[in-house]
Automatic annotation (TrEMBL):
The lineage of its organism: Bacteria, Bacillati, Actinomycetota, Actinomycetes, Kitasatosporales. It comes from the Bacteria. Pfam families: Acetyltransf_3. Residues 15-172 form the N-acetyltransferase domain. Keywords: Transferase. This is N-acetyltransferase. One of its GO terms (molecular function) is protein-N-terminal-alanine acetyltransferase activity. PANTHER family: ACETYLTRANSFERASE (PTHR43441:SF10), RIBOSOMAL-PROTEIN-SERINE ACETYLTRANSFERASE (PTHR43441). One of its GO terms (cellular component) is cytoplasm. PROSITE patterns: GNAT (PS51186).
């Protein structure tokens, strides 16, 4: 039998992490059509409504059902606006280890939403799911993402040289692939022991 994460939502002080719904298509499309997301992730450029629909109806739920991970839409609690996405992937159920990826909508950045959503996910993963490791991989030049990793207490474990293709703007306004190093970060349950407690609830 395939191991899977439960179909749950996680609430924090300011955010709700929950499954994507069809109604998120316009906001997800807007969020993904962004310079930083295009540069540092492998999303389609441009990101269309059809891409969002395929993600929400197909790939995102399949990640959970097929045991690879779980995809959360992240809402602002007060406004119900979609502010981001957190994706657990490449889960190893024997090692109880998984990897996290995240995006925050451009207009919602700098508020600590990435750190808050990933930290709550980590607490749920370690306490409720009894996982032993959360891994994060950032491109060497992705300073904002490295700030998030450091803020939540991840330890920088090493560099995979030349391991990643990212994208950079060309003079004519297009995009070109460039090869870069990848920094591997790890978070273990004990890394969170000295961190301030995070209020979260899952159900
Ligand atoms: C990475 C990303 C998710 C961060 O989202 P966010 O909600 O702004 O993150 P937070 O507010 O929790 O923290 C961001 C931190 O990075 C800092 N930061 C942001 N841009 C920065 C930059 N260019 N240089 C240095 N620090 C930067 C912020 O000041 C903040 O640190 P602080 O709280 O100590 O002030 C967002 O920039 C994003 O969606 N980027 C595109 C997709 C992406 O790169 N995903 C990660 C792939 S590994």
């Amino acid at each position: 039998m395939t191991s899977t994460f439960p179909d749950i939502s996680i609430s924090t002080d300011r955010l709700v992490l929950r499954p994507f719904e069809e109604a998120d298509i316009p906001e997800l499309t807007a969020m993904m059509n962004d310079e930083l997301t295009a540069a540092w992730t492998s999303v389609p450029i441009p990101y269309t409504h059809a891409d969002a629909r395929r993600w929400i109806a197909g790939h995102a739920p399949a990640e959970r059902v097929q045991g690879r991970g779980i995809v959360f839409a992240v809402d602002e609690l007060l406004t119900h606006r979609l502010v981001g996405s957190v994706h657990l992937m490449n889960t190893n159920w024997h090692a109880l280890s998984t990897e996290v990826g995240y995006v925050v909508a451009p207009w919602a950045r700098g508020e600590g939403y990435a750190a808050e959503s990933v930290l709550a996910t980590a607490h749920w993963l370690f306490h409720d799911q009894k996982f032993e490791r959360l891994e994060l991989r950032t491109a060497a030049g992705n300073t904002a993402s490295q700030q998030v990793a450091q803020k939540i207490g991840c330890v920088s474990e090493g560099v995979l040289r030349n391991a990643l293709i990212v994208r950079s703007r060309t003079e004519d306004g297009g995009w070109t692939d460039i090869r870069t190093d990848l920094i591997v970060w790890g978070l273990l349950p004990e890394d969170l022991e000295d961190a301030p407690p995070v209020e979260y609830s899952a159900g």
